[in-house]
Amino acid sequence: MPRSRFDHQLETLNTELITMGALVETTIASAAKALMEGDRTQAKRIAQNDSQIDGMEKSIESLCLKLLLQQQPVARDLRLISAALKMITDMERIGDQATDISELTLLLGDIKTPTVMDSIGDMARATIRMVSAGIDAFVKKDLDLARKVIDMDDEVDDLFVRVKEELIELIRQNGPFCEQAIDLIMVAKYFERIGDHSVNIAEWVVFSITGEHRSSGEETV
Amino acid sequence: MRKKIFASTVLLCVLTALVAFALALWTDYDGQRAFMQSEIIRQAADIKEACLETGNSVPVLNALSDPRLRITLVARDGTVLFDSIADEALMDNHQDRPEIEQAFASGAGSRTRLSDTLGEECFYYAQRLDDDTVLRVASYTSSVWAVTRDLIPRYVLLLAAVCLGALWLASRVTRRIVKPLNELDLEHPLENDAYEEIAPLLGRIHRQNEGLRDRMTELQNQREHLSAITASMAEGLIVLDSELTILACNQSALRLLGREDLNPVEQNLLVLCREAWVSALARRALAGERAEQTEMHQGRALRVLGSPASNGCILLISDVTEQQESERMRREFTANVSHELKTPLTSISGYAELIETGMARPGDVGRFAHIISDECSRLLTLVDDILSLSRLDEGAVPAQGGPVGLLAVSHEAVSRLTDAAHKRGITLSVEGEEQIVCASRSMLLELICNLCDNAVKYNRDGGSVTVTVGRRGGRPFVAVRDTGIGIPADEQSRIFERFYRVDKSRSREVGGTGLGLAIVKHLALALGAEVSVDSAPGAGSTFTVTFSAPSDQACQPQ
After folding, report:
1. N or C: which end of chain A has fewer CB within 10 A?
2. Does A2-216 carry CATH code 3.40.1190.20?
3. How many beta carbons lie within 10 A of that of residue B18, not counting itself?
């Protein structure tokens, strides 16, 4: 009986993680939408999502610790739980950054330059794709998809460089956009960081499946 | 069963053998005794013979010294005259011995009894001699037993052999009895050639098998029907248990949710779809409420209907994107129609009121009447257009027709517009070779007329309209080229929508209804043709209607 209870708890952990992932996904998507459309009401709503994400992080964390203490899992289960502990941190950070983006959206006002916004839109789409694919990889336990997410980060990094160059050009022209350019570079940086967190999530997905983590070199559990 | 048969057989064999041996032993013992008795009687006769020959008994008896026999001679008064084993002097009177009494009385007597002298059981045979003495010959009965006893080891050996044999035989017999039972083919019970005692059982198994098979086939059929239904339905169907675990899910559901690469059975609903509203809806259905919600998911409008089921719930997902789109278009159409009908009516009623109240100067009445009549004819055109569109929408117009010459129809269409074109100095021309298509002539004429009408209306003064008839890639086509204002590229996809106008003010001015191209699109659809537009702002437009290649089948004339 205790085993089946353990299985049940693991299943709960799995669904909780997916729920949190879904919430993060929606949050970042609506933050990007609010930014692109200048929708201030939607931007204000994102802060609520963030506190919900924080709550979920806490509850999943305590579930993980409870499982570790009470069931003393080994092998695959241990990997899932430790990966979960790391993944929720990354997801929570993504939530924070989505909130930061929406705060900047409120500051930015209406005047925006189309070319830079196009590039930032590309970045937003690419990072949302990464977050979705990272969570998808966890849901499907799909190793190939997780590795694809890790590769996708290069695309986001390239886009960040592009946005940066465009903003530098804008500042050099000394137009009315200088002030906005500073905010926009921060928005772009947040997207770039979200991409990095997605890579982290994907790496922990790889770890939970294979027991190998990129940063740990040859060490395995 | 095997054990029981084996044990019973062995027990039976051993018991039979034991009884048989006991009987044999007993018979043997009996035979031995009878033989001994007859032997003693024979010997007694021999001794009597010998005594008769010599006359004196004692020396004869002395000469006979068989240790197995006890020979006693008893006088008439009971005194023992001779005894071969005991000392005759010490022996008591033997007159009261029953065999001796009998011998004195009837000449011979026999008895088996315990010997008083020897203290052992003996068989006595007494015979009266001629000298009135009794000769008694006796033998120990134990000697008979001894003979029989010698046989016992042999019997025991034999018994052991028989037992061993019985064991072997029993195991063989058991195996032979059980073998047909073990080899029963329960799949085909009636084909077995086993004991008739189990035939009723086999018959029953057969009937039950049949019943089971029927039930299985029925279930299988039901299952196949059900899965065929769920697989072929366009709506997605998901069956969930009380923990939101997916119990069943059809391919459409996976397709609609964009997860065709997944096998979600036995997984949580979240694995299939992470949208929070779907989970919330499923929870509401679990709580026993029939819930429905339409939301956008991956660019499609999905309507999810959750209904409670026993121990879970059922989600039915349908794609309502097109439905919503057509609803939107219908709403727009209604709004547009009302607006378009209202515009001429407003001016009609305005001018009519001016005349009615006498506010119009007499000189203006004629002009106002002219405006009213203009607006009325515009209304009529509009209503005509709407009617023909709704006829086309209903599909009531027969698409089949006879062979029609495109060039001839084009000439007719152009001739109808000569007046209108002439007023604005627009040149109309038709060129190309005659092409025969299979179509309804009236619909074709309406189509080309509409295109030419547009070409004239949206032309610049003094421009030109060229209708070209020809064949491209084996397919007949009509192209109407004008030198008008042209259409921007990003609006070209929308011009076939009802009431869509590129340049709204100008369109009204030239008296268009905004339905011309919508009618053209529908007519082309009904005729099986394609309409394409090639245009640039200021450079004029070319509308091309391409018909499908004429089939070999002769077109029936109208």
Report:
1. N
2. no
3. 13
